Each structure stands twice: as C-alpha cells, then as structure tokens.
C-alpha cells in the first residue's frame, strides 16, 4: 500500500488532500507543521511526500533539503503563488515536481500518479554514478565522458555549456532544475550569468534537437521555477 505523507498546515487543504488520496487507496499520514517531518520520514520511509512550502516549525525547503541527504522519496512541493516563487532562493533542492496554489486536488493526484509511475518504472541512477554511462531519454542520448550527444543515433554538435545542461536534465528526467542550478553545472568557473543566458542555451538546445528530428518539446520550461526533461 502506498504510504503518502502530507505536510500542510492549512486544515482545509490537508483534509481535501487526505480524502482524495484515500480515494486512491493510499495510506495517508498528515503533519500540520514541519517540525517533526524529517525525523518521521527517516523513521517511517513513506512512498511519497506532499510538502507545503510555508509551514510552521520548519519550512518546506529546509525539509526537502534535509530529506534529500538520506532519501530519494518522491516529493511534490505545494508552492505559494507564482510571483512568490520568483522571490524565493533557488528551488533546486530536489523536489520532483511543484504545484502552485490554488490547485485542484484532482491535479495533485494526477501528478502523484505520474511521479509514482516514473519512479516505479525507472529507479534513477544515483547522480554520482551516472557520469560513467550514457544517459538517454526518448531519442536523446549523451555520453558525458566522451562529450557527445546523439538524437536517434545521429550525432549533433553541442557547445560544452549546452552539453552540461542537457546532461544534468537527463540525469533525472522529470525533475525540475532551477536556472541557478543549471548555471552552476554549466559554468565551472563560477561566473555570474543571468537567467536569460540559460534561456538562450535552452532555445539553442531545442533548435538543435529539433533540427536533428528529435522532439524539442521534451525540454520543458516550468514557469517561475526552471527546466526539466520529460
Ligand atoms: Ca502553509
């Protein structure tokens, strides 16, 4: 039985989410503040975590960051409004997806199902070990060691920065990376570049993938958060 932890301080939202999850035959635990969430997750090892961003006790970003030290449990982050996300520090803390309030509970369930399906199908390789192998998604593949990229087996020319960004996305299909996080992997000299620079690399990547007959739409922009491949 899939055990879902919901960490949400607003009683109405927590109740609705619990009801929808139980309708899916999920076993549900609700925490109304963030103070005990990390320890609880470590002890109980739930199959899924729905995590509100703004919480009494400990906020969702801190919880996410701490949980990622020891667990790859799927996390769906419930965020505040989009304009509030823009003011938050990088959201590259390892949530599998983000959903903005207000949301429909139906949409939350759909996201949970999608993420669970993905996790159960293809347990992701740990980030550290993935560099030794070719990373592939759909028709797109990169070999980070040989610095090559293919679309449907046909080699395409990417700049080193484009290749690093694509490699990062391919390491965790479905996971959203903030522009800040992508800048850090793309430039090893810690230079300061603007978010727009990442957007223009993405534009070029999409163009090159599409010119080689690949599906450029696989690289998805998540408004206010960053990019993922899916
Ligand atoms: Ca809240």
Task: Give a written overview of the molecule.
The structure is a single chain. With about 230 residues, the protein is α/β, with parallel strands linked by helices. It folds into 2 domains: about 5-120, 3-Layer(aba) Sandwich (Rossmann fold), CATH 3.40.50; about 135-230, Arc Repressor Mutant, subunit A. Helix content is about 40%, strand content about 20%. The protein is built from 9 helices and 12 strands. It has helices at about 10-25, 35-45, 60-65, 80-85, 105-120, 125-130, 160-170, 180-185, 195-210, and strands at about 5, 25-30, 50, 75-80, 95-100, 135, 140-145, 150, 155, 175-180, 220, 225-230. The strands form 3 sheets. The chain has a 5-stranded parallel sheet. The longest helix has 17 residues, at about 105-120. The radius of gyration is 18 Å and the shape is elongated. Calcium ion (CA) binds next to loops. Calcium ion binds near residues 9, 10, 52, 54 and 55.
């Amino acid at each position: 039985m899939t055990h879902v932890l919901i960490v949400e301080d607003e009683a109405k939202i927590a109740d609705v989410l619990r009801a929808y999850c139980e309708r899916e035959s999920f076993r549900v635990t609700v925490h109304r503040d963030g103070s005990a969430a990390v320890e609880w997750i470590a002890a109980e090892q739930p199959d899924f975590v729905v995590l509100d961003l703004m919480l009494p006790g400990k906020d969702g970003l801190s919880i996410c960051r701490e949980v990622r030290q020891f667990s790859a449990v799927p996390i769906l982050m419930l965020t505040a409004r989009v304009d509030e996300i823009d003011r938050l520090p990088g959201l590259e803390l390892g949530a599998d997806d983000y959903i903005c309030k207000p949301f429909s509970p139906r949409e939350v369930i759909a996201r949970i199902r999608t993420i669970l399906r993905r996790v159960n199908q293809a347990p992701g390789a740990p980030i550290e070990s993935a560099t030794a192998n070719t990373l592939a998604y759909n028709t797109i593949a990169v070999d980070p060691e040989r610095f090559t990229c293919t679309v449907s087996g046909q080699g395409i020319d990417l700049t080193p920065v484009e290749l690093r960004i694509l490699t990062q996305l391919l390491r965790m299909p479905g996971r959203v990376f903030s522009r800040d996080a992508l800048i850090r992997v793309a430039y090893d000299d810690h230079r300061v570049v603007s978010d727009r620079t990442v957007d223009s690399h993405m534009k070029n990547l999409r163009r090159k993938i599409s010119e080689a007959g690949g599906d450029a739409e696989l690289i998805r922009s998540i408004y206010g958060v960053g990019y993922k491949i899916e």
